[in-house]
Specification:
Blueprint (H helix, E strand, L loop, with lengths): L5 H42 L32 E7 L1 E3 L16 E3 H13 L5 E8 L4 H13 L4 E10 L1 H6 L4 E4 L4 E3 L11 H6 L24 H26 L3 H6 L5 E2 L1 H7 L4 E2 L2 H12 L5 E2 L1
Helix pairs in contact: 2-3, 3-6
Amino acid sequence: MKMQTLKEKIQWEKIKRFFKKISPSLKWILILALGFGLGGWITNSINNHEFSWGKNNANSSPTDNYSGDSNYSMNDDCSVVGINLHGYLATYVSGDGASNSNYSPDVVASEDIDAKIENANANEDIKAIVIEVDSAGGSPVAGEEIANTIKDSKKPVVAFIRDTGASSAYWAISSADRIFASKNSDIGSIGVTLSYLTNVEKDRMDGYQYEELSSGKYKNAGSPDKPLTEDERALFMRDVNIIYNNFMKAISENRHIPLDKVMSFSDGSTFLGEQAKSFGAIDEIGGLKEVEKYLETKIGEKPVICW
């Protein structure tokens, strides 16, 4: 421990005497400051409906407020956990994303959805899981991860598609016990894309020249500032087709549809609800009300969904 010098002791005594003199006034200043600050925070929170049991976020929806904790419930009567799969589907969302100027809050992480499904399974009070989908897709790995977690769930998982359930978002819910969608929902889009824009001509017009300094034949493959060679194109298409085949096989297995039939409607396009049902891509036409009716027969009681 560092010893104080005589000078430091004198300075410290002066500071203590000063605060002793102003302490009565300081006390009321602090009380007023805290009072106005706390009062303002409470008022703003009430006006903005920011009180919640989960994370407080101006952009969050009621579903987002479910914490996923197996020992935690927004409602003591909760029997079903509701989970949102909204926006771009990624494997993770960076914790400092909000401070990034290029960050979009309309992103959902497979690791978060997986955790909520697993925690719901660990909670004895929860009897089923509902996933609300409104996403055009994203990462194929993220879709595969969620589909596998749903497949491993010991409790029934029901998904319903609102506006869109396409590409990897459709892959994600393909293993659900039941899938509902509106007649007007966009569904499917079973395909893979790696397309991108090149800057080669623009760079040339702007006077820029690409200098390639790399080891490994394909290290710079896919750079928008260089032309794509035929070998590079073949390499990328190899991977695109591998993922495409994995996607179709997963839909075939998860939806119990013969692979040749899945291949017949896997052209990358989306299809509306009735057509999706005729393919076997979904089970029922309907929304949340129809989901609740189905769950009532499944769990033997009127469901109380915690969003």
